[in-house]
Amino acid sequence: MKFWEVVSAFRDDPNLLLDVFSSEKWRVPYFEMYSSLKSWTEKSRPSFLDNEVPLELAREIAARYTNNTFLFYPAKYLIRMASKHFDVFLKKNTSI
Q1: Where are the alpha helices (DSSP H) in the chain?
Q2: Residues 6-34: pLDDT tens digits?
């Protein structure tokens, strides 16, 4: 995932992002990148937004995220947010 994708996917929990990015493991360079997001405009879009983040970082954020469930499709390297309808589907189809 790119940095902007991580920030966008988990934007409704800025405290989680701040927590993870400020941890010792991810502080350099992600805390500074995240902290500087408010200061840019569309004309001065920073190039770091397109930087790939380590899969381990994306997984750590997703694992600590409690607002939604995410589904990972390895064949397509795709992450999708599950809807409430998915939870109902799983309860009705316990053989999955």
Answers
A1: 3-9, 14-21, 32-35, 55-64, 84-92
A2: 998 888 899 999 999 999 999 999 999 99
Partnered with residue 72 across adjacent β-strands are 79
Find, among 34, 45, 36, the residue nearest to 11 by Cα. Answer: 34
d(CA 17, CA 21): 6
Instruction: Find all residues with CB under 8 Å of 49, minimum gap 6, and list them.
Output: 2, 3, 4
Q: Please choose, from the candidates 66, 59, 52, 49, the residue with its C-alpha nearest in 3D space to the C-alpha of residue 12.
A: 66
What pTM, to 2 d.p., does this model score?
0.67
Cα 18 → chain centroid: 12
